[in-house]
Amino acid sequence: VIMVKSREELTNKIMIAKVEKGLTWAQVANAVGQSKEWTTAACLGQMQMTKEQAEIVGKLFDLSEEGIAWLQTVPYKGSAGLPHDPLLYRLNEVILIVCKCFRL
Questions:
Q1: CB contact burial 13-42 (16+ within 10 A = b; e otherwise)
Q2: Which pTM was predicted?
Q3: CATH of segment(s) 7-103
C-alpha cells in the first residue's frame, strides 16, 4: 500500500504505479467511468474525484486511505508552476505576454 502526504507525492506514486502495472489512461478511465482526459487530469491532481471514483483508482494503483482521500480533495488547478513540456511552456508564454495586449 502506497502512503502519501501531499497531492504532488500522490501524483508521483500514481505515475510510478501506472508504469509498473503497465496500465494505460484509457484503461483507468474505463474503470472510473469517465473520459480519458478527465481521468488523466484527476489522477495528475487537477480534478476532484467522487468517493467511488477515488476508491476505484485506489485499488488500481494500490493507494492508501490517505491517497484515496487526496483524490477527493478540491485541487488548486494549474498550481503546478510552469509546464516542462516545450509546447505547453510556449503556449503559457504566449498567454502571459499576449493576453495583456488584448485587455488594453
A1: bbeebbeeeeeebeebbeebebeeeebbbb
A2: 0.73
A3: 1.10.260.40
